[in-house]
């Protein structure tokens, strides 16, 4: 039921964020990253769905400008929910960084992880409220 | 030392990859040496770790920084801890010994007075917990399940789920905790609590009944989410707390499956959501989709199911690729249960065969196979044939096989059957599996009325296109067998398709030379051709034809392929012994096909096979891997694509020895089927399905249960068909229920049973899906229950009869 991993990559295949919820070796992780890039970057957004098969599981992905947000779910999972969860995540990032762009994710990669950890834990959706999440992350920043 | 920002900038400003490597390596060296300094001030240390993590995201080797990250965990500063945990999650994985150190720090921080520190530790534990960690730390988690801080309770709840997944022996305690959480949680915490309970139920389906009491509460929660005004805090995409709605629906699907009582409690609310949810926005569609999935998973009444399937029908007609994709996938398992409701959307489904998205096309294909029955076979096979013409190569073999199996089972008449098969051979003759071809030839051999027609049509089709291997082989075989009939026969309907066709001794032999001279010829074609030629030599009368045939055969006396050379030389020698040649090339004994006779019951009588020596017929059947008794049961029980797979003889349990023996015998009688035996043995492995035989799992005086595993190549996971037979001899069996668990490392999904009661002598079927690492042995623990004459019976069974490595 849970997510296997969440990846944010740009069109060139550079990984901007990677959170693995199952145990993989570092080698497997980098294999997954390049395979996912191969899969999503060759898909045609206008004529294809946002779902692709991946090693017996499914990739649910969505492209925002030059960035692909990908999550890996089980075959019988509700793909649409995860698509919405990705969108929710992006909207929160957009509020947090005030019009987010790829550079925000590059220079503040550690903050992106902090936002992610408020939304997902152990591959499950933990929090869905935009306001709650933002309040918490901002509070965390103040503790620094 | 540069700052993180400056470092990132300098990496980004690099013009070439070589430049970048240079900058990165210099920085990595600097980081390494700064770790060796003991007097690094805290700020510089944090900056260094951040750079290290940036290096990690670039894909550099960063293992040398692991210990530094763990050191940060011990710091008393929140900033340090936060960075330390981030580094820990990124750099470590479950399998490293450093985890022991991490476990210690997490243990300390879970007991911290600062809720933000506790929450950091929880996030880390949830994301990287190993089995050992789970065992060491579960007591801390249990404590936190009653934390006064909402956020911590929620995180701890999901951590608890991960802990049980890692250490299932803790399950019993945690079920009690989850119930306590349900009693306490408001709608804010409900999402996490349900996630926890679903996790428990998935690990061990036997726990499901323990949560039945929650159904009324969940239903009322769902109802109020759907009807009351918006709580802005949890509004997403125009829907009130959609993620919670979906979670509740998922849990209801688990609680309602195979339980009419709980299903009854949720029916109304499900209907309400299905009709009231606004589907114009994507979030609404998402909730609706989950709702219909729940309706189809529980034993909802047929009216509600139809409502659900019609909603999917709307999805199918949508412009959104995503909606079509999910609807097709979700409809496939229902096609057997609610065939009529799904049939209504046949045209929309068939239209999806032309979709630009390959995964949608694939799902549409799978679904359309399920829709084929006596009434729809003509329409759907016509669409499939049209699709076969244009589809990608990878689909051709699969579609050919499916069309063939559909035709075998549902052909309205023999002529349609033969026409369909010729069309398949002409469209995808280079991808037609060997057993499809063999099945067709057996069919022709068994249709004396249509042999002339078939022969003429194949002759015409092959003259028009000699690039399709299976078509060429079929034509060659048929001409070899029925060449004499073709010469003297009248013009049949085949001439409507090929009006310019001229059939005489010369044109027949011309076809052979064209085939052998063409660039498309193959070893298989050459072998078939040689045998066919020797047969034809006794069917044609003029000496000039015999001479042409002799020369064609002789051409191969120096062939590189030893088998072909041997045939050529032996056949050439037969021309010196006319009597032997005549008896050797006598018509092939008509192979008996039980499958066909059963399917075409009406016409079976007049098509009674000519008397054949029994042993030969049996051997032929062996060749096709046809075990009649088993096929019979498969067809009667499912009528689905399984039957097709069995018919085509992809049975793994088939002993290979019999194939080889058969091969020899057949070659002795010069039967062309001998050729099919080699490749079809290979097809056992490479076909789209691997199937285990049906194994008995349980039997008593009333009920017999069998399990059959099926695996589709390329798709991981095993589908297990569980069949229940009523063998009581007297009454009806009711409330049949099956709970299943698998060994650790495997995952199981239990699909709804086709019907929970079976009358005397009848049977029903239920599907289980097992996924896990390939090569693992599949073992089940099953809990079977049923009632008979008011008294109920329950048994636990351990089933491990599947062969090793089936997954």
Automatic annotation (TrEMBL), chain A:
It is found in: Cell membrane; Membrane, Coated pit. Residues 3-143 form the AP complex mu/sigma subunit domain. It comes from Tortispora caseinolytica NRRL Y-17796. One of its GO terms (biological process) is intracellular protein transport. Component of the adaptor complexes which link clathrin to receptors in coated vesicles. Clathrin-associated protein complexes are believed to interact with the cytoplasmic tails of membrane proteins, leading to their selection and concentration. This is AP complex subunit sigma. One of its GO terms (molecular function) is clathrin adaptor activity. Belongs to the adaptor complexes small subunit family.
TrEMBL record, chain B:
InterPro entries: Adaptor_Complx_Large_Subunit, AP1_complex_gsu, ARM-like, ARM-type_fold, Clathrin/coatomer_adapt-like_N, Clathrin_a/b/g-adaptin_app_Ig, Clathrin_app_Ig-like_sf, GAE_dom. It is found in: Cytoplasmic vesicle membrane; Golgi apparatus. Its main location: membrane. Keywords: Cytoplasmic vesicle, Golgi apparatus, Membrane, Protein transport, Transport. PROSITE patterns: GAE. SUPFAM superfamilies: ARM repeat, Clathrin adaptor appendage domain. It comes from the Eukaryota. One of its GO terms (biological process) is intracellular protein transport. One of its GO terms (cellular component) is cytosol. Residues 690-803 form the GAE domain. PANTHER family: ADAPTIN, ALPHA/GAMMA/EPSILON. Belongs to the adaptor complexes large subunit family. This is AP-1 complex subunit gamma. It comes from Tortispora caseinolytica NRRL Y-17796.
């Amino acid at each position: 039921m849970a997510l296997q991993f969440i990846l944010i990559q740009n069109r060139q295949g550079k990984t901007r964020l990677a959170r693995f919820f199952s145990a993989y070796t570092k080698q497997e992780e980098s294999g997954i990253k390049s395979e996912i890039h191969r899969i999503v970057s060759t898909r045609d957004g206008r004529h294809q769905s946002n779902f692709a098969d991946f090693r017996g599981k499914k990739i649910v992905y969505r492209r925002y400008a030059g960035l692909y947000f990908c999550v890996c779910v089980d075959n019988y999972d509700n793909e649409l929910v995860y698509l919405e969860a990705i969108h929710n995540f992006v909207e929160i990032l957009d509020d947090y960084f005030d019009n987010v762009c790829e550079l925000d994710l590059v220079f503040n990669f550690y903050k992106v992880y902090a936002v992610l950890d408020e939304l997902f834990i152990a591959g499950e959706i933990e929090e869905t409220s935009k306001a709650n999440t933002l309040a918490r992350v901002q509070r965390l920043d103040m503790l620094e | 030392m540069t700052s993180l920002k400056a470092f990132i900038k300098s990496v980004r400003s690099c013009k070439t990859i070589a430049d970048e490597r240079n900058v990165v390596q210099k920085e990595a060296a600097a980081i390494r040496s700064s770790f060796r300094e003991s007097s690094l001030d805290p700020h510089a240390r944090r900056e260094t770790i951040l750079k290290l993590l940036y290096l990690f995201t670039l894909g550099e080797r960063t293992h040398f920084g692991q210990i530094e990250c763990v050191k940060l965990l011990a710091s008393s500063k929140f900033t340090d801890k936060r960075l330390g945990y981030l580094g820990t999650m990124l750099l470590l994985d479950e399998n490293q010994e450093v985890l022991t150190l991490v476990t210690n720090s997490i243990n300390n921080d879970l007991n911290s007075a600062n809720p933000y520190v506790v929450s950091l530790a929880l996030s880390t534990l949830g994301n990287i917990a190993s089995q050992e960690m789970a065992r060491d730390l579960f007591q801390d988690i249990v404590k936190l399940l009653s934390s006064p801080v909402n956020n911590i309770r929620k995180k701890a709840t999901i951590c608890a789920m991960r802990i049980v997944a890692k250490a299932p022996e803790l399950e019993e305690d945690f079920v009690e905790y989850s119930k306590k959480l349900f009693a306490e949680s408001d709608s804010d915490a409900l999402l996490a609590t349900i996630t926890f309970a679903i996790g428990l139920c998935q690990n061990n389906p036997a726990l499901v009944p323990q949560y039945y009491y929650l159904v009324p509460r969940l239903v009322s929660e769902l109802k109020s989410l759907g009807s009351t005004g918006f709580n802005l805090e949890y509004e997403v995409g125009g829907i009130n707390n959609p993620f919670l709605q979906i979670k509740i629906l998922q849990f209801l699907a688990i609680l309602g499956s195979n339980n009419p009582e709980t299903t009854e409690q949720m029916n109304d609310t499900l209907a309400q959501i299905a009709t009231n949810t606004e589907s114009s926005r994507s979030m609404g569609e998402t909730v609706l989709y989950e709702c219909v999935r729940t309706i189809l998973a529980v034993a909802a009444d047929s009216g509600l199911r139809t409502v659900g399937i019609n909603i999917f029908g709307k999805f199918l007609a949508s412009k959104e690729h995503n909606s079509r994709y999910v609807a097709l996938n979700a409809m496939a398992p229902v096609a057997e249960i609610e065939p009529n409701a799904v049939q209504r959307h046949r045209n929309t489904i068939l239209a999806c065969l032309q979709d630009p998205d390959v995964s949608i096309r694939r799902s549409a294909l799978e679904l359309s196979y399920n829709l084929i029955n006596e009434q729809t076979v003509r329409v759907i096979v016509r669409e499939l044939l049209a699709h076969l013409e244009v589809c990608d190569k990878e689909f051709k073999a699969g579609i050919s096989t499916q069309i063939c199996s559909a035709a075998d089972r549902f052909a309205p008449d023999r002529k349609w059957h033969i026409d369909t098969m010729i069309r398949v051979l002409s469209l995808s003759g280079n991808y037609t599996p060997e057993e499809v071809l063999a099945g067709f030839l057996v069919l022709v051999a068994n249709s004396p009325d249509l042999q002339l027609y078939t022969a003429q049509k194949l002759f015409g089709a092959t003259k028009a296109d000699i690039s399709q291997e299976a078509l060429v082989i079929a034509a060659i075989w048929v001409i070899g067998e029925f060449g004499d009939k073709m010469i003297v026969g009248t013009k049949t309907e085949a001439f409507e398709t090929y009006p310019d066709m001229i059939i005489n001794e010369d044109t027949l032999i011309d076809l052979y030379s064209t085939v052998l001279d063409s660039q498309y010829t193959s070893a298989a074609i050459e072998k078939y051709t040689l045998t066919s030629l020797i047969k034809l030599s006794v069917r044609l009368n003029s000496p000039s034809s015999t001479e042409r045939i002799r020369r064609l055969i002789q051409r191969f006396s120096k062939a590189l392929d030893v088998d072909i050379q041997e045939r050529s030389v032996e056949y050439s020698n037969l021309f010196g012994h006319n009597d032997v040649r005549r008896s050797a090339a006598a018509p092939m004994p008509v192979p008996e096909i039980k499958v066909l006779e059963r399917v075409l019951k009406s016409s079976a009588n007049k098509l009674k096979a000519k008397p054949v020596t029994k042993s030969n017929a049996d051997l032929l059947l062996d060749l096709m891997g046809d075990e009649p008794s088993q096929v019979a049961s498969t067809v009667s029980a499912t009528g689905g694509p399984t039957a097709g797979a069995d018919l085509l003889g992809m049975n793994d349990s088939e002993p290979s020895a019999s194939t080889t023996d058969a091969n020899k015998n057949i070659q002795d009688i010069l039967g062309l089927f001998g050729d099919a035996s080699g490749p079809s043995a290979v097809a056992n492995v490479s076909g789209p399905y691997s199937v285990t035989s049906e194994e008995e799992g349980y039997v008593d005086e009333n009920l017999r249960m069998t399990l059959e595993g099926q695996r589709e190549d390329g798709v991981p996971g095993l589908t297990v068909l569980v069949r229940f037979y009523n063998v009581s001899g007297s009454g009806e069996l009711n409330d049949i229920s099956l709970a299943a668990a698998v060994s650790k490392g495997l995952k199981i999904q239990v699909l709804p049973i086709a019907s929970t009661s079976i009358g005397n002598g009848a049977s029903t079927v239920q599907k289980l899906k097992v996924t896990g690492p390939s090569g693992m042995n599949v073992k089940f623990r099953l809990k079977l229950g049923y009632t008979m004459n008011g008294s109920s019976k329950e048994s636990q069974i351990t089933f491990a009869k599947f062969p090793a490595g089936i997954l």
